[in-house]
Amino acid sequence: MKIILLGAPGAGKGTQAAKLKEYYNIPHISTGDAFRSNISQGTEIGLYAKSFMDKGLLVPDEVVIKIVESRLKEADCKDGFLLDGFPRTIPQAEALDALIPVDCVVNIDADHEKIVKRLTGRRSCKCGEVYHISTYSAANCAKCGGELYTRDDDKEETIRKRLSAFVEQTAPLVEYYGKQGKVVNVNGNQSPDSVFAEVVNKLQS
Ligand code: ADP
Ligand code: ZN
To answer: Predicted confidence band at 205 (pLDDT cuts at 50, 70, 90)?
Structure first.
């Protein structure tokens, strides 16, 4: 199964990705995680990406496309993969279509004011797990013990800029993939478990 997870920042892509990769036993490819790992390792790509990320802007297409193309060529992606945070623009989608067309696009739709509340209270772990301060106040990850942190771009002002970037640059992908008949719409204003149930249910039918 080759799946794209589409949705605004904070719609729950990362949370669903963690569940879906186990359910389908496919690699989870998150461009945001790839950039954050480059940032913490202090690479040139990381430094470059951070200058955009901290402003709530998208990283230029050519950089993102190169990273994803080389990752998708690895052996573990042969039978399927889960793309989270890519593609985010029409040129990225066209580059992916030229390389490997996907089977379906899961579009997680969530209310933008709800998203602001979610993201300002979000605590993240390097392993990919995410928590919300209202339901999890521990300092370390329940899964791997890693220290939780607040992402640099999870500040209200930056969140609003990320949402505008989504509306302008990423939302047109729903129509793009709609024309290919690949979009599965899911209501993201529910609990993570309910969203997951809806995704699995719709992917099976
Ligand atoms: P979120 O979906 O919560 O915004 P991500 O971790 O997917 O978080 O992305 C964080 C940031 O990384 C984005 O705001 C953007 O700057 C950059 N980024 C990630 N994926 C892409 C992409 N496909 N194209 C351009 N920029 C990207
Ligand atoms: Zn963890």
So the answer is: confident
Q: What is the pLDDT of residues 47-59, one digit of tens each?
A: 999 999 999 999 9
Confidence (pTM): 0.91
Q: Identify whether 87 is preceded by a cis peptide bond (ω within 30 of 0).
A: yes
Tens digit of each residue's pLDDT (9 = 90 or more) over 129-169:
889 999 999 999 999 999 999 998 999 999 999 999 999 99
Work out which ligand 1 atom sits closest to the CA atom of 60.
25
Q: Which ligand sits nearest to residue 93's alpha carbon?
A: 1
The reply to whether ligand 1 has any atom less than 6 angstroms from the CB of 131 is no
Write down the CATH number for the domain with range 2-26+79-204: 3.40.50.300
Rg of the chain in Å (alpha carbons)? 16
**What are the φ/ψ torsions at residue 112 (nearest 5 degrees)?**
-65, -30
Determine the 3-state secondary structure of 169 from DSSP: helix
Pocket test for ligand 1, best of 51, 58, 83, 90 (most atoms within 8 A of CB): 58
Give the model confidence (pLDDT) of 18-29 as tens digits: 999 999 999 999
- Rounded to whole angstroms, how far apart are CA atoms 50 and 37? 11
Structural domain boundaries in the chain: 2-26+79-204
Return the active site residues: 13, 88, 122, 151, 162
Ligand 1 midpoint to CA 57 (Å): 8
